[in-house]
User: Which sequence fits this backbone?
């Protein structure tokens, strides 16, 4: 569910072509389904797939029959691809009005979407505005005009199951466009910075644009687009929601940057553990610290903490040291302590 009082959801976009397949049971789809399941565990609520041709539309349709989470078809240029996708249990269609062409094509898509109960996202992108609007001096105004034109077209067909996105590369433009849209239209917004860049730059630019909007209650779903993995997009999305005060029940990781005093390699430990920690649906803080300078302090504050101490590690649970083991046994001791903590949390929740 998107919009209204539903929580803001995190989505990502599949980054490779789908394998060609003959049926939903085709083994070629199994690795895709496994990765979708692991994205779901990380907190992803939907995944969008590019549909460049008819074979891709059919492969996506077959995948949608077995997918553990809702799938969105991303359509450019050819409206017939959208029509074909809607023969399958696709959750949403994204169309780019800048390149779909004649209004009757959009109407045809809307008519089928209405019959099938499938929402449409009008995806406006600063890099592919409709040709007649491109000369408008202000890109934000041009994007708003493009969105308004498509909304009028869809509303004239009696179609209101609409999501809109106004993506640009400049965070300041993204903020202006979405604030102006939210003041004028009732439709839910999908937020993001387009072509945001590699991991670090992309996260910074998305954070700069999305946090202020989310804090004002603008945005129903987000995607942190990165020249990096889908998993990082989802984790970044979760962290952005948490910064905006909209984090769900999940693990919060605190970790030190490591320095010359470290006796415990926090980077390697986080790399080994981060996906399993983010997959836990429990509202706990986990601290991973390199040495006894700041380690015990942070680890004590957390629900579960691990810190280097010479050639040993100390494990803290809710303020108390519960284990001291050689650093070689850190992972095993941490795993046991984490299991006990999570089981205790589950038992407490059941008792409630
Ligand atoms: S906790 Fe220790 S290792 Fe980590 S940054 Fe601070 S001083 Fe360095």
Assistant:
């Amino acid at each position: 569910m998107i919009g209204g009082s539903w929580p803001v959801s995190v989505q990502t976009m599949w980054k490779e072509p789908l394998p060609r397949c003959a049926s939903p049971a085709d083994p070629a789809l199994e690795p895709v389904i496994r990765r979708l399941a692991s994205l779901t565990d990380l907190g992803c609520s939907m995944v969008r797939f590019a549909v460049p041709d008819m074979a891709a539309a059919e492969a996506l349709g077959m995948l949608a029959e077995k997918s553990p989470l809702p799938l969105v078809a991303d359509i450019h240029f050819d409206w017939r691809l959208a029509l074909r996708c809607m023969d399958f249990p696709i959750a949403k269609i994204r169309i780019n009005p800048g390149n779909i062409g004649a209004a009757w094509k959009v109407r045809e898509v809307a008519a089928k979407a209405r019959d099938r109960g499938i929402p449409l996202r009008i995806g406006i992108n600063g890099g592919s505005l409709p040709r007649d609007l491109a000369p408008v001096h202000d890109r934000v105004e041009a994007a708003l005009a493009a969105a308004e034109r498509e909304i009028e077209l869809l509303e004239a067909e009696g179609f209101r199951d609409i999501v809109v996105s106004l993506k640009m590369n400049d965070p300041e433009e993204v903020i202006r466009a979405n604030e102006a849209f939210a003041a004028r239209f009732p439709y839910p917004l999908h937020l993001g910075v387009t072509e945001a860049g590699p991991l670090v730059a992309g996260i910074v630019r998305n954070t700069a644009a999305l946090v202020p909007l989310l804090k004002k209650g603008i945005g129903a779903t987000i995607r942190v687009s990165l020249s990096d993995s889908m998993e990082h997009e989802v984790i970044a999305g979760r962290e952005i929601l948490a910064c905006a005060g909209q984090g769900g029940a999940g693990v919060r990781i605190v970790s030190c940057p490591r320095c010359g005093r470290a006796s415990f390699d926090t980077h390697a430990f986080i790399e080994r553990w981060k996906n399993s920690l983010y997959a836990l649906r429990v509202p706990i803080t986990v601290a991973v610290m390199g040495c006894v300078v700041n380690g015990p302090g942070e680890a004590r504050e957390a629900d579960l903490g691990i810190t280097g101490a010479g050639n040993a590690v100390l494990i803290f649970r809710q303020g108390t040291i519960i284990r001291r083991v050689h650093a070689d046994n850190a992972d095993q001791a941490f795993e046991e302590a984490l299991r006990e903590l999570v089981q205790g949390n589950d038992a407490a929740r059941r008792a409630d």
